[in-house]
Model the fold of this input.
Amino acid sequence: MSYTEEMLASIAKVEATRQARLSQTFPRMTPDERDEVLRCFHPDYIEEMARPIRLGVNAGDRMPHELADVIEGPAHLDPAVFVPGEPDFICDVLVVGGGGAGASAALLAEENGAHVLLVTKLRFGDANTMMAQGGIQAASQPNDSPAIHYLDVMGGGHFDNAPDLVEALVMDAPEVIAWLEQLGVMFDKRPDGTMSTAHGGGTSRKRMHSARDYTGAEIMRVLRDEVRSRSDRIQVLEFNPVIELLTDGKGNVTGAILLDLETREYRVVQARAVVIATGGSGRLHYQGFATTNHYGATADGLVLAYRVGARLAFLHTMQYHPTGAAYPEQILGQLVTEKVRGIGAQLCNIHGEQFVYPLETRDVESAAIIRECRERGNGIITPTGQPGVWLDSPLIDLIRGPGTIEKALPAMVRQFRRFGIDMTRQPILVYPTLHYQNGGIAIDANCMTGIPGLFVAGEASGGVHGTNRLMGNSLLDVVVFGRRAGHSAAEYALRSGYGELTINHLHDWKAARQQAGLEGGRPAPILLPDYTRHTHPVREEPLIPVTR
Done:
């Protein structure tokens, strides 16, 4: 599949303006211009696309309709019928989630003396971590420091971030890079052996460490191998998502109920501490956007934690990555890393005109693209009606020398060549895609939730990124707070006993739903979206027989 004649005509205009655009620098927006484009065009600011949640500790807080529907949903289990019984597994620390945060938590919990059970909905490594491309931030260069990194993170998050979480993020960052390299992560390096670093949107220093354009996959490869090598103290259970947390009836989390996706049987886990590392919620497709997220990203951890009383934070704000693939349709929404713009590519409209500085923060960049397509009518429309703008990737080789694209972005080059598109010679079509859950379960710097026995790490947590995340801070987040959660959970577990196993909290949840006038709905967590249905993939009733 190659470009249509109409697209090729537009590409000719992009090529015609290329030399002129190379000779000038497009200006950054002023603070007032950024505020205006966000207010008018960013999806978070569309009032009717969100509503207040009607029950629980966050009652009255606004969040997208799709997320509110899931958070308010009924449980899979009826506390009047289901009794947990004897545990199938007993461990010190139960880690829920098999991405970078879960793997890091398991490793640090084990290092601090805990026996660990890691359970994951799909395969170990089926996570957004695996799909992260651009890099991981850390202040490792002579002209940089954690203090400067801190200011960039706070500014990128519009100063809404939780300061103690940002401090933990940036202070741990250099140690995390050293730890990952010691475990075997092969970061890009200069000829002298020092780390290669690059800019990301909203950064004032080059602090992006990468492994070509598969940084997340490289980090996940190493973390997964390290977990597997410790199989005597870390057990991994795949295709067993958690559908409910267990409590002792006094507010302490004591384990979880799993659903074996192969046998459809429930399994009971007794644990002294539980770490939620279930990732984000992109597969809820807020406002109908395509997403970069893996198929298991359905807000499971938020649902589980909220029902036992954990507070949520910053769920009025989601991140729409400015450059998701808009063509061909087979890869709609797939990530086109910010690294492409970081090393020289520019965004152009149908007329070949640059319309935004390429490294504004992600929310501003996304809003500018949406404005160019919706208000100004300067987008390119695909045969199926998908709007997009050009990302002029061939500029990279003109700026940095022939072969740079092939060397820096090998996975992306292969991805587009599968469809007859050579991004070293032709621009690629992009449009904002639902990418990241800025908020989540509220935690402190030690990943505690305020619910005894419950810890959270990674994208399932909320506060560190404020209302907008900078590139490279998600991979950093999962490792920094995954490690912290594992350490904290192990310390808690080894000074605590095993508690009673009940789902008594569901009596209160059921009563609260009735009081709020909520009846029916799809049981949550939904586990997987159903793309076989013709309606919204989240809002249908499931037909899932389960047994104990």
User: Anything to note?
Assistant: The longest strand covers residues 266-276.
